[in-house]
Amino acid sequence: MKKKLLLSGIVLFFTVLFAFLGYLFIIFMGDYVIDEEKLVMDTASTLVDTEGNEITKLFIENRELIDINDVPEYVQQAFISVEDQRFYEHHGIDIQALGRAIYKDILAGGKVEGGSTITQQLAKNLFLTNEKSFLRKTKEAIIAINLENRYSKSKLLEMYLNQVYFGHGAYGIQAAAKLYFNKDVSQLTLEEGALLAGIPKAPSTYSPIENKDKSRERRNVILSLMADQKYISYDEAVRTQGKTVKLQVHQKQESPWLSTYIDMVFDEAEEKYALSNEELLRGGYTITVPIQQNIQKAAYELFQKNEYFPGTDDKAQGAFILLDNRTGGVIAAIGGRDYVPKGLNRLHVKRQPGSTFKPIAVYAPSIEAKLFQPYSLLKDEKQSYGDYSPENNDKQYAGDISMFDAIIHSKNAAAVWTLSELGIEKSKEYLQKVGIPIKDDGLAIALGGLSDGVTPIQIANAYRTFTTNGKYSEHHVIQKIKSQDGEVIADHTDKEEKVYSPQTAWDMTRMLQHVVSEGTAKSGEFNGELAGKTGTTSYTVVEGAAKDAWFVGFTENVVGAVWMGYDKTDEQHYLTKGSSYPTKLFKDILTTAKWDQEVAFKVPKGVEDLESPIRLEEIKQVQAKYTFTPLGLLTLTLEWDAAKDERVEYRIYEQNGNKQELLGTVKGKGYYEIPFANVFSTATYKVAPYNVQTKVEGDGKEINTPNLLGKK
After folding, report:
1. In this predicted model, what pLDDT tens digit does every residue of 366-418 receive, in sequence order?
2. Buried-most residue among 37, 266, 415, 505 (CB within 10 A)?
3. Residues with active-site annotation
4. How is residue 217 annotated by DSSP?
């Protein structure tokens, strides 16, 4: 018996000794794994333009550090009840909760419950990565125990509440209180505090802005937990669960005009360079972006004005993107009229592009494929292709029309006929090259009739191909990222691919320029050369209503797109006007920002400029007279008012009975001489204008020869 007691004593002694040594090891290791500087939470990254000018500190306005004494006790209790019920009892690691979690995981055959304490979450978020490994969990435990030794429970809870993410760009409970309720944390009610406590587990899922029902359900669960843990009575829990939490979303920021752009920076950093939002927030990076602040501000301010958005109410939405032609850098971006951080960015939402699709789906590919040229004649006739019968918006059909005029007047029938000649697969091949892969296989592609649609960014960047001699490359928001020590950790490089020849790109530019000067995009004013295309999709439920309205345009230096419409179109929510409104808004944004004023397009080297179109005018009157030459020969001279355009050719015909003969042609003149005229001839003559571009002859004007003998 004594030996057993002695052996038990020795085992107990060594157990205590090893536990003590292990504890000392953990404490000792804490000095190596805890970096005090990481406890400073206001290390923000800096956004700068390409010239190095500071634009903003990322999310610096979205985190305000608060003292735990400013947080109502019931708000603190709400977080403790859901995140760490034994917070005041454990020393960094809750063995009881951890064992319960492991037990439930084993029963479920997978991970169903977390065992991390508030201190462990703080340790992971401040000091560690999201790597899932035993070593990382060990470090987390070491850091948590040492944090508990260094700081009071109140201080740890304060750091946690200041650090945790609440969605929509709000970091820390003070920023969350201002975002969702427009009040200080000290003014939060019990139901508001419980709602906020439910968000950090999954900010997107439990956002009261995006998912009101799920947010309410989780709030009620937390109130029940508070009652279970005796923080509040069950009666108070039930009464509070019955209350409706009224949000007062505070959307205004110090620089609300930057909201969309900043979110796009965060998205691209994560998608392209594997830098999370949290890393950018506390990493002290310098991020160079191609933004032009004057355009960004002008766009934001004009988007707030209802007169630009012709909807059934003042809730009509819009989106605007502007890219640098040369680099593809995003110069300005507006994701919505009331955009909030991490909200719905309408620049990424696919919409039906309407007639803005014609240049990239039909006309540029048909020129590049050498099927047609700008002044080739297309069939503009009402006809059916199986079950598909496209119609022109104005119900007018020219029969034959040049591609130039088909684009200017946005003729649907001509576009569909051209696609039928080109072939759908060939069109899709070119669309793929400009970053718009589609799955559709019908001729409705010509008019933007797509099953999924396109985003404003996609179509703007596709049009950019016309400005880069036919080469396509991806757009970008981030030009360069430097770490705190100046090391370049990300640097954008262009990867260009040829889509069109420089000649095709330039021909499209010239034609689209005339769309603005004399076609469907004439609305508004712009003091410079601008090319572009309009597009409107109808909402057929209501006569005259529109679902989507577009303008996609470019100058010598920038290319962009404006979309207008409702997030959901129905009989109470639709546009009352079409593409003239986004066209005017686009022009006004550039004008307000004083951008590309009096700037003209430059013809690329090695490219032939496309002539402006020849417009045939009716010949109102032809006069005929005889004259005598010095040799006594009789000459018949035909005269008419020639067009100012000296490129117009005139054809002169002689008609004898049923026989018509072309006598000759003149260009840039209003007369034609017929020598050796026969005064006894009964022939008549006709002068007809001729378009050398389209090879089309206009209506002629006939005249009889004067009778010198006075015979009738």
Report:
1. 999 999 999 999 999 999 999 999 999 989 999 999 999 999 999 999 999 99
2. 415
3. 83, 355
4. H
**Long-range CB contacts (within 8 A, 24+) of 95-103:** none
Is the distance from CB of 311 to CB of 573 less than 8 angstroms? Answer: yes
Q: Where are the beta strands (DSSP E) in 70-166?
A: none
Q: What is the pLDDT of residues 253-286, one digit of tens each?
A: 568 899 999 999 999 999 999 998 878 876 778 9
- Judging by beta carbons within 10 Å of its beta carbon (0-12, 13-18, 19+), is residue 397 exposed, middle or buried? middle
- Long-range contacts from 419-428, C-beta under 8 angstroms, 24+ separation: 419/361, 419/362, 419/443, 419/445, 419/446, 420/385, 421/366, 421/371, 421/372, 422/362, 422/365, 422/366, 422/369, 422/371, 426/365, 426/369, 427/361, 427/362, 427/365
Which parts of 392-439 are beta strand (E)?
399-402
CATH architecture entry for 64-241? Orthogonal Bundle (1.10)
- What is the Cα–Cα distance from 162 to 165, expressed in whole angstroms? 9
Backbone CA torsion sign across 120, 124, 125, 130: negative
Q: What would the two tokens of residue 132 be?
A: 């899932």
Helices then strands, each counted (H, E), the chain: 21, 22
Q: What CATH number was assigned to the domain covering residues 352-454? A: 3.40.710.10
Give CATH superfamily name and number for 622-704. Answer: Immunoglobulins (2.60.40.10)
The CA distance from 492 to 30, in Å, is: 39
Give the pLDDT band of residue 704 (cuts 50, 70, 90): confident
Strands 286-288 and 480-482, bridge-based pairing: antiparallel
Fold assignment, 291-350+456-477+492-613: Beta-lactamase (3.40.710)
Residue 229, amino acid: Q
Contact 312, 348 (CB under 8 A): no
Q: Is 49 exposed, middle or buried (0-12, 13-18, 19+ CB in 10 A)?
A: middle
pTM of the model: 0.70
3-state secondary structure of 137: helix
Distance CA 114, CA 431 (A): 48
